[in-house]
Amino acid sequence: MPYINTAPSLEEAVIDSIKEHRRNVGRRFYSEHGTDRVTAGQLTNVGGATVEVLALVKFAKKVRYGQDDERTVQAGASAKCHGWGCVEPSSDESFGTEFDLDADVYEVAATAEPFVQAAREWAQAHAEKCRAQPHTGR
Ligand SMILES: [Zn+2]
User: Fold this and answer.
1) Residue 68 alpha carbon to ligand 1 centre in Å
2) What are the Cα distances from residue 58, in Å, to 42, 47, 93, 104, 135?
3) Do the domain assignments include residue 5?
4) CA–CA separation, 105 vs 86, rounded Å?
5) What is the pTM of this model?
6) Residue 59 neighbours by CB distance under 10 Å
7) Residue 57 placed within a domain
8) Ligand 1 center to 100 CA (angstroms)
9) How many angstroms is it from 46 CA to the middle of ligand 1?
10) Residue 21: phi, psi to the nearest 5?
11) Does the residue 2 lie in any domain?
12) How much distance in Å is there from the Cα of 119 to the middle of ligand 1?
């Protein structure tokens, strides 16, 4: 039987990103703010360059005086064209509801879906018309 390489589950990748962040919170040299990018698809444009769909997981910490700090997480998506000289190399980054970092990971991951779908549509439309070639060599 041939081995079919299936794409990894996007939901699991987003959940792993949240769990990883939770594990590292409070450690030295670990940033409380930042956005993880998980590849959610790759397309090829007319020029042969890759257009990448990314699920985004954004972490933040809000300092509230006299209270505990508030840590949050948001899921979203964007698309990025790697074509050399592309006129519009990325879509906007869009995010869903802001959750408490301790929120249910499945619930947070589910909010990425409509944004990933929109990013896939942007990537598909972009790939059909973009003629920027991949950067090769120097
Ligand atoms: Zn492009």
Assistant:
1) 44
2) 21, 32, 11, 15, 29
3) no
4) 36
5) 0.89
6) 21
7) yes
8) 35
9) 9
10) -65, -45
11) no
12) 14
